[in-house]
Amino acid sequence: MSTWFDQQKKSFADVPIGADNGISTTEFLEAAESLTTLFDVLGSKAFTPVKNDLTGNIKKVRERQLAAPAESETLQALVVNELKTKKHVASEGLLWLVRGLDFTAQALRHNLDNASSELSNSFREAYGNTLKPHHSFVIKPIFSAAMSATPYRKDFYVKLGEDQGKVNESLDREVVALEKNVAILKAFQETKEAKW
């Protein structure tokens, strides 16, 4: 039985992380793009702004990677090298992408760990912990609408695959890998070399 995870181009579990915690840019962006399709599974048009935000930030990082491939093999190198040019388009894109991925990871982790919790609760709590403090009063209602538009837990998990044991196992594997990538990048973004 195939699950939604089996159909993805790249999983965060497949993103190479170097000895120095350098995260491979190409695989990371492919995994992030794959993950954005999860918002399609949620099924509501209310999630379009959330998905567009993620894909827009992926595009900013990818454009920098394409413009300077030798300086962009890892996300950390991409940021450091872009900042040397006195620009920060991709660096800021990555900052927002990490916030969006952190939001997604926290929502999914909360839902995995709390079997009786509805998705709307998990997403609302994650939003409050991650994106909400950085959002303007114009953006907050758009994202709040998305949190309220989440499907029922039972309907969402069925869309991910028929074999719920396999779905939970795959989801947990993805979330663990996503949490690791996000933690590494958040720590890097706190360093002086990642600031503009």
From TrEMBL:
The keyword Transport is annotated on this UniProt entry: yes
Record's GO cellular component terms: cytosol; membrane
Pfam families: GLTP
Lineage top rank: taxon: Eukaryota
UniProt entry keywords in alphabetical sequence: Transport
GO MF term (any one): ceramide 1-phosphate transfer activity
SUPFAM superfamilies, per database record: Glycolipid transfer protein, GLTP
Xref: PANTHER family: GLYCOLIPID TRANSFER PROTEIN-RELATED, PLECKSTRIN HOMOLOGY DOMAIN-CONTAINING FAMILY A MEMBER 8
Protein name according to UniProt: HET-C protein
Native organism: Aspergillus heteromorphus CBS 117.55
